[in-house]
Structures
1.
Amino acid sequence: MRRSPLVFPLGVALLLAVAATLPAPSRAEWAAVPDVNGLVIKQVGQFAVLVYSLAHRKDLAFVGVVRGQTQEAVGGGTNYRLVVAATKPGGDGSTAEYDCLVWGVPGSRSDTWKLRRFRKIQS
């Protein structure tokens, strides 16, 4: 049985037309973290420092979260944009601030979380 050559292109054109009329996914706004000492926020900051330290063989210790924002991630989960303070253990006690971006789902296993960015803020 032979198919009509117009059936496939017509079907594709129809799908493209429908897709073009769908609304674009909305991008959630960033919201300030009201309590940087909240348990989840502190854990996200600790996660960022630990993962960076292990991946780059840097000896950093988490001090605290200075400020942060959260955003619902497209496809699920939450984006955390945090400024964390960290220090070198055994050093002179000085701290540095780092800008980090973490994605994760609160309450999920730690191996599902991702450190997207971690960079020192030059002062």
Note: The longest strand covers residues 61-72.
2.
Amino acid sequence: MDLHTLPALSVLSDCVTIVKKDDVKFVRIIHEKAIAGIALLGAHVVSYQPNGHDDLIWMSNSAKFDGKTALRGGIPICWPWFGRIAAPAHGFARNSEWTLLEHRENENGVIVSLGLPCTESSLAIWPHQFNAILNIEVGDQLKVTLDVTNTDTTPWTFSGALHTYLHVGDVRESETRGMGAEYLDSLQNGKLCHGGELLIVTDTIDRVYTKPQQRIEVSDKVKQRTLSIENHGHNSAVLWNPWAVGAQGMADMDNDGYLNMLCVESTLHADSLENGHTLQPQQSYQLATTLSVRTNDK
């Protein structure tokens, strides 16, 4: 997503400015190592372009920037649950306005911290006290870490995901490895299935891989590069592409948008809120994903 042409609302440092597209404000980062954009709505990374490479993040050309609708593409923050196990789907973090807490930079890159405190609105949806911070490290690689703390007096359970949309030249010409062979197929009501160690997407896919390696790699033959996704704090990896029929059913995705994206998600998966990860009072938990790229040997 190109934020270059937007005028700065405020200049925070040599590398960090605040810009606005329609009704959404963004933290824009321009550093010699990489450029990036982060929407305050949802603490949503919408762009990451390391020096010498095309954007590693896919954003829909039809994404809505009305300040209310979750953005289609980027890295949505699914929390305090993942999926449709409660309402709204994927939790409220991705539809909430986050606050810029801190930014700092040096020759290696820029670090931005965004915060989501507990509010009356969040308590009406999910009656628990919490504090959530998203740390985004932009440099030769992109590291996104969701750090949540139970500030309540009783335990609560949660699930979540860093729902990364990867930008590929053609998903049909991309090969994914490292996700493992065992998965729950959401297209078959969560049926346990076994596949191969290599995945080439040829149709709709919505899978929860239960035994992924820490590092998953997507080899993009069209762009002649390999995207590397290293996850921490997860218990699974979700891979998703809606394919043609799914894309046509989304108002915020172009009909052919599915060809240039593949979601590879760092996921703390649970089939219900009750079966999520339990966090005791004053305990914290980190869910992280790190994205990097290398050029394929020709």
Note: The mean pLDDT is 97.
